[in-house]
Design brief:
By secondary structure, the chain is α/β, with parallel strands linked by helices. Helices cover about 50% and strands about 10% of the residues. It has eleven helices and five strands. Strand 1, helix 1 and strand 2 form a beta-alpha-beta unit. Helix 3 runs parallel beside helix 4, helix 8 packs across helix 11 and helix 9 crosses helix 10.
């Protein structure tokens, strides 16, 4: 099954380069381009891509606001696309805001092409592109005081009260950036069972994806997350 990709970047040369390398990969196809956030939102609604590769900093409607509109605005029929944001700096506060807005992950613009391909496939499959070393620095730096234009953070600790012990264990491993297969191996569960539990956690917490779950786990100070200990 081909993963349909929409490119959103204000630099035409960047879009052209991305189109060339993505279209050369088996199972990936660029179905459209957008030069700013407003165009990205409109194109996403019209073309229904599986993944939007979104530049963070664009004139007019930014990539952050475009991500928020795609993930939370009106949507008629079918699944919303996943958003993979691009940035020049791995500690860019706008990236944090984009993750809060519903993006499924982020990637540096100077990342190797193979990593971009992997990220697109991972995001399209419903997983999160969480590079633990980078993501932990990001959430540690910004979780305590979310910067504009991110909305104020909810009372995180109370939001976890409704989770079972096993769900907290799963959330802990999600927050560490582990995929379902690895979580299943650690906890002695089937991969399908882990996927079901992750979906239930997201529904209970009112979240869009695993990245938002990871951010919430850091904000809540989930035991075992910062010290790296395995769940008991």
């Amino acid at each position: 099954m081909t993963v349909r990709v929409l490119l959103a970047d204000d630099q035409e040369m960047v879009r052209a380069a991305l189109r060339v390398v993505i279209d050369r990969r088996d199972g990936l196809a660029v179905v459209g381009e957008a030069a700013d956030g407003a165009e990205a939102v409109a194109a996403a609604a019209r073309l229904r891509p599986d993944v939007v590769v979104m530049d963070v900093r664009m004139p007019g409607v930014s990539g952050v606001e475009a991500t928020r509109r795609i993930m939370t605005g009106p949507w008629e029929g079918g699944a919303r696309p996943r958003v993979l944001v691009l940035t020049t700096f791995d500690l860019d506060e706008y990236v944090y805001a984009a993750l809060r807005a519903g993006a499924s992950g982020f990637l540096l613009k100077n990342s190797p092409i193979d990593q971009l391909e992997h990220a697109i496939r991972v995001v399209a499959a419903g997983e999160a592109m969480l590079a633990p070393s980078v993501t932990r620095r990001l959430v540690t730096a910004f979780a305590a005081t979310p910067p504009d234009p991110a909305p104020p953070a909810p009372a995180a600790p109370g939001r976890l009260d409704g989770l079972t012990g096993r769900e907290r264990e799963v959330l802990l491993l999600v927050a560490r950036g582990l995929p379902n297969a690895r979580i299943a191996e650690i906890l002695g569960l089937s991969e399908a069972n882990v996927k079901s539990r992750v979906n239930r956690i997201l529904a209970r917490l009112g979240l869009e994806n695993r990245v938002q779950a990871a951010l919430l786990a850091y904000e809540a100070g989930l035991p075992g997350l910062r010290d790296g200990t395995d769940p008991g």
